[in-house]
Amino acid sequence: MSKRDRREVRKFERYLKNVAKLGKEAAMVKHARYLGLPQNTELTRDDARRAEDSRGVPG
């Protein structure tokens, strides 16, 4: 693993830990922000899943 890969992994693990602390609704907003989606829209689980698929970020 390169240094950059390890940094990405740490960043993602930190993100997951932060999401775990939040409530479900706040986690969806944070998830949207992480995936670069508009944050002012109502997100459904399908929207989040679709965004994950397009970005390739594990959920």
Any key phrases for this structure?
3 helices; 59 residues; mainly alpha; globular
Walk me through this protein's architecture.
The chain is mostly helical. The protein has one domain. It has three helices and no strands. The protein has helices spanning 3-21, 24-35, 45-55. The longest helix has 19 residues, at 3-21. It is globular, with a radius of gyration of 12 Å. The model has no long low-confidence stretch (mean pLDDT 69).
Order of helix and strand elements from N to C terminus: HHH
How far the N terminus sits from the C terminus, by CA atoms, comes to 21 Å
Poorly predicted segments: none
> What is the total number of structural domains?
1
Structural class category: mainly alpha
The largest sheet is: none
Number of helices: 3
Report mean pLDDT, rounded to a whole number: 69
Anisotropy-based shape: globular
Q: How large is the radius of gyration? A: 12 Å
Helical proportion, percent range: over 70%
**Total number of strands:** 0
Strand content: under 5%
